[in-house]
Design goal:
Layout (H helix, E strand, L loop, with lengths): L1 H17 L17 E16 L2 E16 L6 E14 L6 E10 L1
Antiparallel strand pairs: 1-2, 2-3, 3-4
Length: 106
Amino acid sequence: MKASSTLLAVFLVAGAAARAQVVPAVEGPTGLPVSGTLHYDLRYTQTAQFYGGLTEQMGTASGEAAYANTSAVLPFAMVYSGGDTWTLSGPSEETGVFSTCWFHKG
């Protein structure tokens, strides 16, 4: 273990002394290949209802994504939102997945 630590230290010192740096051969993409804006948000809520001696607690995870294309050839806007609701305690009457989508072609 001591020999490998010494060897690693020698390589680090030699590389720093030589100011060695590798130039990347390929550059990655700089952004989305489409013109437009993308907005999104994620939410989590937890609610409790007290009625008639009963307590119902619900958890909801949801999110929304909106995209607007600013192209002059094919402008459009789209909004998708959805999530899941589940019962933490109490009667499980209002649980399940929900979603909606809105699309506008300009």
